[in-house]
């Protein structure tokens, strides 16, 4: 069993035409995975609906508690990309669990999005990697201790010297 904990971020954003704004809505991840016809046993657990720029240390502590209290050893966490690395670092040291954070640069509801690819990569990674904390974005697996989001390039990268 793989648990997917959803916390918001761009992956869950909905565009409101009347307001001309995006807001974090109900996560479409469960629907995306049903449409993908997965044969993996997955449970989606909504936890937060926040833009990651609004994530606080209390939110990260809530995510950490949810992971620690979960009976599942393999957990994917969908998260906004702006502070995903900080949350990954806040999850370090949880023994016996494989945790993979992922998100999207474009909302999952868009026809052209990286969401499904990133979630699928995270689901594969969580099955293959040893216990620890990882970030799965754009076909790569990163260690949150040595990773940053390059905002100018709109991608994740390993810090220089690592």
From TrEMBL:
Xref: Gene3D superfamilies: L-asparaginase, N-terminal domain
Pfam families, alphabetized: Asparaginase
Residues noted as binding substrate in the record, renumbered to the chain: 52, 81-82
InterPro entries in the cross-refs: Asp/glu_Ase-like_sf, Asparaginase/glutaminase-like, L-asparaginase_N, L-asparaginase_N_sf
Superkingdom of origin organism: Bacteria
GO terms, molecular function: asparaginase activity
Entry annotation: catalytic residues: 10
SUPFAM superfamilies: Glutaminase/Asparaginase (SSF53774)
L-asparaginase N-terminal domain ranges (all copies): 2-154
Name of the protein described by the UniProt record: Asparaginase
Species of the source: Geothermobacter ehrlichii
């Amino acid at each position: 069993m793989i648990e997917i904990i959803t916390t918001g971020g761009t992956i869950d954003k909905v565009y409101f035409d009347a307001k001309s704004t995006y807001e974090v809505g109900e996560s479409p991840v469960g629907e995306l995975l049903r449409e993908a016809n997965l044969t993996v046993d997955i449970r989606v657990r909504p936890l937060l609906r926040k833009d990651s720029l609004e994530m606080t240390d209390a939110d990260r502590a809530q995510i950490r508690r949810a992971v620690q209290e979960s009976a599942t050893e393999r957990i994917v966490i969908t998260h906004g990309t702006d502070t995903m690395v900080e949350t990954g670092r806040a999850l370090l040291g949880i023994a016996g669990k494989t945790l993979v954070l992922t998100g999207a640069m474009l909302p999952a509801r868009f026809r052209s999005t990286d969401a499904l690819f990133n979630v699928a990569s995270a689901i594969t990674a969580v099955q293959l990697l040893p216990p620890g904390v990882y970030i799965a974005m754009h076909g790569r697996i990163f260690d949150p201790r040595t990773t940053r989001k390059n905002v100018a390039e709109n991608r994740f990268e390993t810090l220089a010297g690592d």
